[in-house]
Amino acid sequence: MSSFLDPEALASATGRLWTRVDVVASTASTNADLVDAARADAPGGRVLVTADQQAGRGRFERVWECPPDRAVALSALVRPRRPMAEWGWLSLLVGIAVVDGLQAAAGVDVGLKWPNDVLVGEKKICGILCEAVPSESGPAAVLGLGVNIALTRQELPVPTATSLRLEGSDASATDVVLAILAALQDHFLRWDAGGSLATDYSRRCSTVGQQVAVHVAENVTTIGRALGVDDAGCLIVQTGQGVRSFAAGDVVHLRKR
User: Residues near 168 by Cβ (< 8 Å), separated by ≥ 6?
Assistant: First the structure.
């Protein structure tokens, strides 16, 4: 295994939520591996990390790929106590944790584009994919994310992406993962105990206050000003026809605040 990630340091990240943190040299998908574990009734608290994910996925089955030792893929298995109807908050919760972790470990000014794109300016540095998993012992969730650490400009999958190195940070992949896990533990435990994260999310969300276009289906677009998120995590938009809320959709920032 390369020195890009320190397995011993990451194994020490166990605590109130994380019971086991494994680093693997390579895998097709950390999410898929933990989905299989959840279906086999693995307990919550497991974390899987790699610097070589070969078949990662994003929302809408978008492919997420990059060369080895340029990014980290991380997935965490949790078994929330809150009703599944409220699990839409999980991907937003992960976004909050990534923002906090990157700011703590790398000092980079990052924000969230609703619902869960982590951006530096308008360039994406992290993707998030959360999945609900049925199992005999009850439903579980796999919280997945991928952070661009050392990608060069030539290695970026799209021009609208970036990496910590391109943003001037030399933070190690290990420190980034440790900081994200610490933040994710804190935010998840607070949410799972019944707390609201709506204010925390809105403070970190660059979408709030902007003129946006929300695409919810082919040829169906709503334009308005994003006001914030509600307790269900829906985006609240002031449109010409009144205030609307969106539980899902692709958002385009039309102009800066």
Answer: 108
